[in-house]
Structure formats: C-alpha cells, structure tokens
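Q: Could you fold this chain for me?
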Amino acid sequence: MHFNLKLILTLLATISTTFAATNGQCSGRSGICISTSSCSQSGGTSYSGKCPNDPNDIKCCDNIPCTADGKSGKCVFTSECDGETYSGKCPGGNDFKCCVGKVNTGSGSSSGQTFYGPCSGGGGACIDIDKAKCDTRTVTGKCPGSNSVRCCVAGNKPSWYVNQNEHSKILFSISGSSPVQKSVACCGCGCASLSMAINVALNKYVNPEDLFVEGYKNNQYFGNGYSHDAITFLGKRHGVKVSWTDDINDVYTALQNGKGVIFNVGPDSTYHFTSNGHYIFLYKAKTENNIKKVYVYDPNGKNNYVNVLFPLRSADNGIQKAKRGNGGDFGIVTKL
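A: Sure. Below is the predicted structure, expressed as structure tokens.
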C-alpha cells in the first residue's frame, strides 16, 4: 500500500483549520474560547457566536474574575494587560493570565482614565473612586485594577423605564415557508426605546407593544427590527420628532438640556450591548474630570445597564465606540 504524503499533509492542514484552536481569543470580545463547563467553573460568562470555528461546546468565556496577592483582577490575554499579570489563576493557555491593573482596551487612554469597562457580570461601570464620583454605591471584586477601582452599581429604575423582556406576547408573524413569530421581547428594542423617549418628552406612556404593531400595520417592519426611518415615522405619529445625527457635541448638549436620545448600537469589544444590532436610550449627562458622561437605559434588562453612567466620546473609551455605523446613529428626541 502506498501513501501520498503530500495528500495526507494537505488533509491534516485542512482538518486543523476546521476548528479554531481551543484557548484562542474570541471574536469581538476580550475573552477566551473554552468549554462552557470550564467557563462556569471559572466564574465567567459564556457568549455564543464568538468562537464560530470551534465545536458547539466551545464558547467565548469573558468577564472571568481572578485574585492575586489579595487584589482583584480580570483574566485577559497578556497583550491586553497594562498592569501586572499572574500565572495559574485563569483557565486557558500560558498567554491568558490574571491582570491586576488596567486592562488595555485599545483606547489609548492616559493614566488619568476613570472608566475601566462594565463591571463583571454587568450591573454597573468600573470607575476609579479616587478620580470619579459614583452616584449610587460601589462594590469590590467586580473590576480589574487597584483597590480604588470599584464597580459603581446601576441606579434605580425610573417609572418610565421599559424592559423589553417583560413584553414577550407574540404580536404578529412574518409569513414564509417557516413563519417567524415576533414580539417586543425578541425584536422591539427600538419601540421600547421610543416608548421611553416619548414618556420623557411628553410625560405620556405609550405601550411599546402598540408601537410595534402600529409600525407593522403601516409597512414599517421588514422582519429584522425597525430602521431609523421607522422610528422617526412612529415618533411623529405620537408627538415627537427624532433627529438622527453623528455629532457627539449635539448629542451631549441635547442630553444636558433634558432631551432623550435613542442610540443605535452594534457589536463592540467594550460594552457588549449586542451581538448584532440594538437600540438603547440615553437620558441626562454630566462632565467629570473633563470627561463627558451620559446615563444609559438599555431596554434589554438582562444587560443590567439601567441608569448607569458611562463616558460618551470614543476618545474617552466611551459608548460612541459602539455605534452601529448606519450613519446618524444618535436620534435626538424633541416635542413636535
């Protein structure tokens, strides 16, 4: 029997690229591709769709807490750590270690940085309490960095806050060979954000389910959520004008003047609002240490980003980095 060595090597190379190596870096996140059981044992959170070339039981594990020398840290690849790294504290390979100190998000922030990313598991923002003030309360053990870097927990939910996950009623189906049922919970983040915006602008509650159905009946829904034009259309029918812009200064001024802003976000490596596309609501703003910050009200209550203060500008590692990229992704809402 004769073996074609060249053919065998080619097949082996093909097989090796079929699956990305376990312990590789996630796509679009700072985590590591490991088994979901290992992730759970390490205290991390598993995310689907970030290790697309791996087997089904291998998913992206991110927000893995760690402790070294009595200090809290986060498990990251060594190239992302601007502090001290410690081996033997994290799952994965030799290049995935416990980082105690600042995690480098690629923003080029200076030593005066006050924001260190969302808290592990959500529910707030990591800040340096020596440089920034927390409006609620702080907790330890959920942020990388020194002892002064703590989780500023989410604030109270205002009466006008809308959690789209509480609106799971099937409202209509998209016809086809396999009809798809639609609800606000699955696909109505735009309507949930608009409902909050209308309430803030007019002190009037409009059920997001009514907005969702209204858009569908007026041929504004095309099976993948609502566009900017659709939200503008629905807003006008309920007494508000939605003006879309990318001018971050106009956005900040509007928020300071008590106007709400609907923000269309996409996947990003810092905030993880969505793995595809999503709308969130911004309301009120303030400046701390020359950093412009805004309050986020994410209708996806599972994210726990409700009444959380985040930087606005990309230059400050802010949520502007999460822009969907459709052009004019900030919708300033005003009375008609």
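A (continued): The first strand starts at residue 32 and ends at 35.
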